[in-house]
From TrEMBL, chain A:
CDD domains: lipoyl_domain
E.C. code: 2.3.1.-
Chain ranges of the Lipoyl-binding domain: 2-80
Protein name stated in the entry: Dihydrolipoamide acetyltransferase component of pyruvate dehydrogenase complex
A GO term, aspect molecular function: lipoic acid binding
From TrEMBL, chain B:
SMART domains: Transket_pyr (SM00861)
The species this protein was found in: Sunxiuqinia elliptica
Necessary cofactors: thiamine diphosphate
Gene Ontology MF annotations: oxidoreductase activity, acting on the aldehyde or oxo group of donors, disulfide as acceptor
Transketolase-like pyrimidine-binding domain sequence ranges: 476-649
UniProt function note: E1 component of the 2-oxoglutarate dehydrogenase (OGDH) complex which catalyzes the decarboxylation of 2-oxoglutarate, the first step in the conversion of 2-oxoglutarate to succinyl-CoA and CO(2).
Source superkingdom: Bacteria
Keyword Calcium: no
Xref: InterPro entries: DH_E1, THDP-binding, Transketo_C/PFOR_II, Transketolase-like_Pyr-bd, Transketolase_C
Keywords tagged on the record: Oxidoreductase, Thiamine pyrophosphate
Name of the protein described by the UniProt record: 2-oxoisovalerate dehydrogenase E1 component
Pfam families registered for this protein in UniProt: E1_dh (PF00676), Transket_pyr (PF02779), Transketolase_C (PF02780)
């Protein structure tokens, strides 16, 4: 019995995946565990293994095709078996399944007021009478011919019928219409929507000043996602940032000790300054549970455990994987998990569930390595706050007895949602983080 | 009907009688001994030799056809071999006196004549001339295998060349005289004066007359011999050829040195059978074929019967007849009595004749008899004759081996060059004058011509500045466009002649030639007998020899009268000659109306169906002049259709009107006469104006914009502009005055469907004439396509037009019914 290979579902939020590469060709024998194909979501790429032995009988989607999850992409079985029952409807049908109903009704409605005598399609036996020109035109314009009434001889569907049906179709997809209106965009050159309609992604900002002195490059899915969430974050919350510095002498000393241990082989894990800062933040969060929260408008999620999000810079863009129950981890464990998840992000095979903003209860974004002295991180909604960790700079400090010396100070920038937290609470939490850093014990 | 010839009732109504001179029959009675004064021994032996070569050549062909081998050489020849074994004396006698500049034309049974004329020519040409001929023919392709390793004399080499070129042609080899495209029944070699042989019985009967006309009109040396069979004397085109050849005007109207008869011998190779039909006693009534001469003109064609079993009798006849031709008293008819031992073809069981009869003729076999005579007269010894026999066997064996050797004598490589034959269908040359070194003979400078002067005053565009049409009489019409192109060529090409019925004094039945009579001497423009086969057939012969010619057959309906000439001869000879021959013939054909069933038919499809013809049908003065110029500049046969409906139509399309100067319109390009976007109407010929009328109505009544394209040419035809139009409109009506069934409109519809299926919003719809007889003028609107037919067809088959009420039945049910009933 042949069996289908489906596009796996990668997390609740993923609707479609793009096929990366087929490693097996139709006709090849496949064993359980053989990699069939790779695919990617907005944020990560995966490989799908064969779940059973057999011959790869058919491949329904090519590399680069966007495939809805749970749709059959291939068939495994014995040579000669039929694959037709597994053949999915076209992608486009999947995508337009909701819209066209309405559109076609609209189209037929318009057609039916045509003053012409409309002769019913008389071809009979379920066959459609349609001229070659009309057929080609229908494909090009994305008109579904099954409901178009032919006005040609013997009720044949002719070009003018398709033209009319096409005119009744919206020229922009609904999403594009909405987006164009809200974001003041215009149609770009590309028309990638069904039937050559303008899809949301085809909208561009019209810049008359620059003329054509630029190249329009499409955003990657990931970029689009980041853009969307960042924008929404600023629009949907009352963010402000407090800055403070922490004496970094202690943490630097610790780092020195740990490094020496690593080199001596006493320690397996390379514990970084960032790990130490995260460890300190976790300790502070335990004392300030109102910061370890999600703000939901009329309610808040108070987390019992700390799920720490860490902003990771990758080639694909910014990713924020979460370390679940980070407060249960030792410093070494935390360090190891942070390293692992960051590596997964960079490789692109991190579990998408961990990338959702809901997965973390608080986020740390560390730009210290890049020499940033102060910034205003953007909250990963619905989280309540985010801590920006800045670079260490020597600053004059009262060393006691009126003696001032230059001390390495680490900048801390806490952005919080004023809807959820008041300034005092936020300041106290930031101060706690500073204290934890300055007095960190392992 | 020239005015100078007065038909006096007193004279023609007088009582009297027609008398005939006796027609000589087998009067020659000299022995070899007596002829020794007229022939050297060498000549006499050569006559024997040539007969032996022919006999052996054909015996070999008979052997390989019937036994699959000759002299131990096996070969299977699937093609035809119509042999003339037994007729050698007639062939050699015919060719003996002929010079290289004398042309012979033949039949399907002409191997012997080819060899006889070829051997005669080789004898007369110098070594240098022979070498040049052999080296130049297809750049030495035929010569190469022959000369390889050969160490004899040039004459011997030339004999081998003749044997090899003919055999390779018979066996369809690329090295044959005509690249293997002619074959056994059509082999020829013009450098030796051997012109096309013809597989249609009597085919040369009119073509040869045209060749003689060419020689006369262009003052070329030499005579023309038409070798046709005794049975072909029954064929209409042969009679038409004879009628043409004996026109009184040659002696009574042609002027100066042109006065006098054609240099032509109708040489009946009378083997007394037409396939199996016995011409004397069964299928004909003339008893003695020479009798025919008495019926044709006062000279009785100087006809006589000659014993074709004695080569010296035939030679004697040719010497005597030559004198008659030199005195411009031709043509001559010879009835050369002979007999073939071999069957009509190798499959002939000779069921129609007795063994005794064949044996009786074999007993007087001319080769044996002539050999004995030579021995008796002491011209040659038995050994010498035997040596000729054995040398000839060697020669033929050599020829068979070489011509069937696939390495040196390959067939055309149609796999490597699949379009080889396609490329030979047309010569596609652009030639101002067929003989540029000669000055055309005309009666006055062109500017002094009354018609030319009259045309200066005509309006070359139909409308004035305000778009108002000039009066018909003021408008420069389509016939004027034709005239300008033709008169221009008459002043450019000295070989150009035109003829047909009523071409001279009348100015052509439709006044196209008005004014030409004044411009041209008789021999360049004359009236022909009402004999379309001869009009076209002679034009073919004229063109074959190197002239340009415009035959005209008045009505398209008369094409059938010249069916063989238009379908079998005119289109074939360029390719069948391997492109040795050019065929610059522009056949003017006029499509009528008003005159009923036999004077109103558009037969463009018949012409277009035959490969090798170019077919055009202009509908405007601008197109008529431009296309006629192109036709006359080319070297291919063109069937030039005209319509009697529109000879007087003015130019309505070409901006600035019809140019006064020379211009050409390339064949094949259709012309958009009106731009539009909703439907394309492609029209052929005069139907253009009804298509435009339909376009007007579509626009005015239904706001439908029709694009009207005039096909102009049918062969060749460039479909691209039509497809471009279809991309716009998606809808196509093809209209023309031909009966729709099997028309060129249907051909176009089919081709366009193949080419542009995806562009079509409906099948291309053909609106042609009904498949009926053409009724009287008063009922013609029910027969020929009308504007409302076109609109009805669009409404019914392409796109229903809101508010249109049909008046003609274009439904599919009706289409089915008509087809079921064959109407």
């Amino acid at each position: 019995m042949a069996s289908p290979v489906i596009m796996p579902r990668q997390g609740q939020s993923v609707e479609t995946c793009i096929i990366g590469q087929w490693y097996k060709a139709v006709g090849e024998q496949v064993k359980v565990g053989d990699i069939l194909f790779s695919y990617e979501t907005d944020k990560a790429s995966f490989e799908e293994e064969a779940k059973e032995d057999g011959e790869l009988l058919a491949i329904f989607y090519e590399e680069g095709d966007e495939v809805p999850v749970l749709v059959n992409v291939a068939v495994l079985g014995k040579a000669g078996e039929s694959v037709d029952e597994f053949r999915p409807g076209s992608v486009s049908r999947e995508e337009v399944s909701e819209e066209p109903e309405a559109e076609e009704q609209q189209a037929t409605k318009e057609l039916s007021v045509e003053p012409e005598v409309i002769i019913a399609n008389e071809a009979g036996e379920g066959r459609l009478r349609i001229s070659p020109r009309a057929k080609v035109m229908a494909e090009k314009l994305g008109v579904s011919v099954s409901k178009v009434k032919g006005t040609g001889p013997q009720g044949r569907i002719i070009a003018r019928d398709i033209e009319q049906a096409a005119a009744a179709l919206p020229q922009m997809t609904r999403l594009a219409q909405e987006k164009a209106a809200t974001e003041k965009l215009v149609a770009g050159e590309a028309e990638t929507g069904i039937g050559g309609r303008i899809a949301a992604e085809n909208l561009v900002e019209y810049q008359s000043v620059y003329g054509d002195d630029f190249e329009v490059k499409k955003l990657s899915n990931m970029r689009k996602l980041i853009a969307k969430s960042m924008h929404q974050s600023l629009q949907n919350s009352a963010q402000l940032t407090h800055h403070m510095s922490a004496d970094a002498r202690r943490i630097m000393a610790l780092r020195k000790q740990l490094k020496a241990k690593l080199e001596a082989g006493e320690l397996n894990q390379n514990i970084t300054i960032n790990d130490l800062v995260c460890y300190a933040v976790i300790q502070a969060l335990k004392k300030f549970p109102q910061v370890n929260t999600h703000f939901l408008g009329d309610s808040m999620r108070w987390f019992k455990k700390v799920h720490l999000g860490l902003a990771v810079d990758t080639d694909r863009g910014l990713m924020v994987p979460a370390i679940r129950q980070a407060d249960d981890l030792s410093l070494e464990g935390l360090s190891s998990q942070l390293a692992a998840v960051a590596a997964q992000c960079r490789k692109g095979n991190v579990n998408p569930e961990l990338l959702k903003p809901e997965a973390a209860s608080f986020t740390v974004s560390n730009l210290g390595n890049y020499g940033v002295e102060m910034f205003t991180p953007v909250i990963n909604l619905p989280q309540t706050a985010i801590l920006g960790v800045c670079t260490i700079v020597p600053r004059p400090k009262d060393l006691g007895d009126g003696v001032y010396g230059f001390v390495p100070m680490m900048g801390l920038s806490l952005t919080y949602d004023h809807q959820a937290l008041d300034g005092g609470e936020a300041t106290l939490f930031l101060r706690e983080v500073k204290d934890q850093i300055e007095n960190l014990t392992i | 009907m020239p005015k100078v010839q007065f038909i006096d009732p007193k004279e023609v109504r007088k009582a009297g009688e027609v008398t005939f001179k006796p027609i000589p029959v087998n009067q020659y009675n000299k022995s070899v001994e007596e002829e020794k004064a007229n022939f050297s021994n060498e000549d006499l032996v050569r006559i024997y030799h040539d007969m032996v070569v022919i006999r052996e050549f054909e015996t070999m062909l008979n052997d390989i056809k019937t036994k699959g081998e000759y002299n131990g050489i096996a070969y299977n020849h699937p093609g035809p071999a119509h042999l003339s074994i037994g007729q050698e004396a007639a062939a050699v006698g015919m060719a003996y006196t002929l010079g290289v500049e004398d042309f012979i034309f033949g039949s399907h049974r002409s191997h012997g004549e080819i060899l006889a004329k070829g051997l005669s020519a080789i004898h007369k040409l110098t070594d240098e001339q022979l070498t040049e001929v052999m080296e130049n023919h297809f750049d030495g392709k035929t010569f190469a295998p022959v000369k390889a390793n050969f160490k004899g004399t040039t004459k011997e080499l030339a004999v081998r060349f003749l044997i090899y070129g003919t055999l390779a042609e018979i066996f369809a080899r690329e090295t044959g005289f005509n690249r293997g495209l002619g074959g056994s029944m059509h082999a020829f070699f013009t450098p030796f004066g051997v012109y096309p042989n013809n597989a249609i019985v009597g085919g040369s009967g009119d073509i040869a007359v045209g060749a003689a006309l060419f020689k006369k009109v262009n003052r070329k040396d030499g005579i023309v011999v038409a070798n046709i069979g005794d049975a072909s004397m029954a064929c209409g085109p042969v009679w038409e050829g004879l009628s043409f050849a004996t026109m009184d005007q040659f002696n009574q109207l042609w002027e100066g040195d042109m006065k006098g008869g054609l240099p032509l011998i109708i040489n009946i190779m009378n083997n007394q059978y037409g396939m199996g039909g016995q011409t004397c006693g069964e299928t004909m009534g003339y008893q003695v074929a020479a009798r025919i001469g008495a019926g044709l003109n006062d000279d009785q064609l100087h006809a006589e019967r000659v014993d074709g079993y004695n080569p010296l009798a035939v030679i004697d006849a040719y010497r005597r007849k030559r004198k008659i031709l030199d005195e411009k008293r031709g043509p001559v008819l010879l009835d050369i009595l002979t007999y073939r031992f071999s069957g009509h073809s190798p499959s002939d069981a000779s069921s129609y004749r007795s063994k005794e009869e064949i044996e009786a003729w074999q007993a007087v076999d001319s080769i044996i008899w002539f050999g004995q005579e030579l021995e008796k007269a002491g011209v040659a010894g038995a050994d010498e004759l035997k040596k000729i026999q054995s040398d000839t066997t060697d020669l033929i064996s050599w020829g068979l081996k070489l011509s069937t050797n696939d390495e040196v004598s390959p067939l055309m490589d149609m796999e490597k060059y699949p379009e080889l034959i396609g490329e030979m269908m047309f010569s596609d040359e652009s030639v101002d004058s067929m003989e540029p070194e000669r000055t055309p003979e005309v009666n006055h400078p062109m500017a002094e011509n009354p018609r030319v002067k009259q045309l200066v005053k005509k309006e070359r565009f139909a409308f004035d500045d305000q778009g108002k049409p000039f009066s018909k009489i003021k408008q420069y019409g389509l016939r004027d466009g034709l005239f300008e192109a033709i008169v221009d060529r008459f002043y450019k090409d000295p070989t150009l002649i035109a003829y047909g019925e009523e071409n001279r004094d009348w100015g052509g039945a439709f006044a196209v030639y008005r004014g030409l009579t004044e411009a041209l001497p008789y021999h360049r423009l004359f009236n022909s007998p009402i004999a379309e086969a001869s009009i076209v057939g002679t034009a073919i012969g004229y063109a074959m020899c190197g002239g340009r010619v415009i035959p005209e057959i008045m009505y398209c309906d008369f094409l059938g009268r010249s069916g063989d000439e238009v379908f079998n001869q005119l289109p074939k000879w360029q390719a069948m000659s391997g492109n040795v021959i050019k065929m610059p013939v522009v056949l003017r054909v006029s499509v009528g109306s008003k005159y009923g069933a036999q004077h109103s038919q558009d037969w463009t499809a018949l012409a277009a169906h035959i490969p090798g013809l170019k077919v055009v049908f202009p509908a405007t003065p601008y197109d008529a002049k431009g296309l006629m110029n192109t036709a006359l500049q080319g070297t291919d046969p063109v069937i030039f259709f005209e319509s009697q409906r529109i000879y007087d139509i003015g130019e309505q399309f070409h901006e600035g009107g019809v140019p006064e100067g020379y211009y050409e319109i390339p064949f094949g390009d259709p012309d958009v006469k009106r731009e539009g976007s909703d439907v394309t109407i492609l029209s052929i010929g005069a139907t253009l104006y009804r298509a435009l009328e339909a376009a007007d109505q579509l626009q005015d009544k239904y706001a439908m914009s029709a694009e009207v394209i005039d096909a102009r040419s049918l062969v060749p035809f460039n479909y691209e502009p039509v497809i471009e139009s279809l991309k716009k409109t998606g809808r196509l009506v093809i209209t023309g005055d031909a009966s729709a069934r099997g028309s060129f409109m249907k051909e176009m519809a089919s081709t366009i469907t193949e080419l542009a299926f995806d562009e079509l919003d409906a099948p291309p719809v053909v609106v042609g004439s009904r498949n009926w007889i053409t009724p009287a003028y008063e009922l013609e609107e029910h027969f020929f396509p009308q504007a409302d037919w076109i609109i009805d067809a669009i409404h019914e088959k392409i796109v229903p037009i809101k508010g249109h009420v049909v008046s003609n039945n274009f439904t599919t049910t009706e289409l089915l019914r008509r087809n079921k009933n064959g109407i």
